[in-house]
Amino acid sequence: MIEKTVNEGQTTVHFIVPPLKADLMRIWKSTFLKPNNTERVSKMILNHNISTFPKWTKINTNKMNSFTLIFESLPKECTSFDLIEDALEDGGFHFKNIKRNINDVYQIIL
């Protein structure tokens, strides 16, 4: 039953992480999608291949890495949105005006 809930009406964001100097990364549970035409937000419901704060994921600094975030569905009327990592320390990201596509699957290169 949980699998069905996660797969219906979700937004998927795949991240590509080029080789970094740092060997650890993590995501904050407070990461969300903010549609540009409404106050409603889509919360992160699942993360794959990256730990959530306060834990860390060790990454290979000599190769490309990747992780995936799954969010609640965006409203039907949404045409673009921001992806915001609302971190309580420096280093959180904010990607603005991501154009919505029909599949609600996106790729971001950090």
Question: What does this entry look like structurally?
Answer:
With 110 residues, this protein is mainly β. The chain has one domain. Helices cover 5% and strands 48% of the residues. It has one helix and ten strands; from the N terminus they run αββββββββββ. It has a seven-stranded mixed β-sheet with strand order 9-8-3-4-7-1-10, with no helix packed on it. A three-stranded mixed β-sheet has the order 5-2-6, with no helix packed on it. The N terminus is likely disordered.
Features:
110 residues, mainly beta, three-stranded mixed beta sheet, 1 helix, disordered N terminus
Give the topology.
Elements lengths: L1 H6 L2 E8 L6 E4 L3 E5 L6 E7 L2 E2 L4 E2 L6 E8 L7 E6 L8 E6 L5 E5 L1
Parallel strand pairs: 1-10, 2-5
Antiparallel strand pairs: 1-7, 2-6, 3-4, 3-8, 4-7, 8-9
**So how many helices?**
1
Dominant shape: globular
Total separate domains: 1
- Rg, alpha carbons: 14 Å
Average pLDDT works out at 89
Total number of strands: 10
Helix content: under 10%
Helical/strand content category? mainly beta
The SSE order reads HEEEEEEEEEE
Low-confidence stretches: 1-7
- Separation of the first and last Cα atoms: 33 Å
- Summarize the biggest pleated sheet: 7 strands, mixed
What percent of residues are in strands? over 45%
